[in-house]
Amino acid sequence: MPRFFVSADVLQSTTATLEGEHAAHIKVLRMGPGEALTLCDGQGHEADGIIEAVSHDGVQVALGEVRASASEPKLKCSVYMGFPKADKFEHVVQKATELGAYEIVIFPCARSISKPDAKSLAKKLERWQKIAVSAAEQCGRGYIPQVLALASFDEAVQRACKAEFSALFYENEHTLSLRRAVEERPFSTAALMTGPEGGLTEAEVNTAHAAGMSVCSLGPRILRCETAPLCALSAVLYAANELA
Question: Is 31 part of a structural domain of the chain?
Fold first, then answer.
């Protein structure tokens, strides 16, 4: 069933009028009166609707009862990634949204090659958020992950440590596996941090460890920077029975 994200106040009524891009999309899909769709507020609530009329002014929809989205994981899992090159982060935003990430955070590392200025970053953030919205619609989510940019590695670590479980993944870690780390205690929020193409420096790893993050391995193979966060996210959601 086609899914559209709307503002929260739209779901407070028994009828809704869709305009602009939503109305245009419905017309492209050649949907008409009597056909069903789902409206979501992007915060985990949704309602099914039936199209009543399609006109130049918009699309009128009769709404059913509002419910909690059944597609959202109970575990709020945030993905933290060091600035990569080119458009690799776009891929991570899209796939992490599909998998069920709660939010997606990007930050500069010592070995980050790409470090956009404020003006460029603002444009990128706008594009990344649109990618998250599109991916959420496509995969049937009821929540849109926020895409955030932080100013430094230290800021990212301090923010990540606020989660009940926070882990930094380091290719030179050979003692603590992710499996062992997630089995140590239950948690309802998680923050998973990976680095850029060049990896993390020992100083950065030490900073994260000193702040209280678990420094973990993702196995014996070296993963690309765009693969590591998706691997970690999938593994933690699976361990929490969110991919069953």
Answer: yes
Q: Do 110 and 35 sit in the same domain of this protein?
A: no
Residue closest to 95 by CA, chosen among 53, 128, 47, 48: 128
Give Cα separations from 53 to 30, 35, 37, 47 (angstroms): 12, 10, 13, 18
151-174: b or e for each residue (b if 16 or more CB lie within 10 Å)?
eebeebbebbeebebbbbbbbebe
Residue type at 235 in one-letter notation: A
Tell me: the pLDDT tens digits for 36-47? 999 999 999 999
Residue 127 placed within a domain = yes
What is the Cα–Cα distance from 6 to 27, expressed in whole angstroms?
17
Residue 244 resides in a domain? no
Q: What percent of the chain has pLDDT over 90?
A: 93
pLDDT digits (tens, 9 = 90+) for 125-139: 999 999 999 999 999
Q: Are residues 172 and 64 in the same domain?
A: no
Contact (Cβ atoms closer than 8 angstroms) between residue 142 and residue 72 = yes
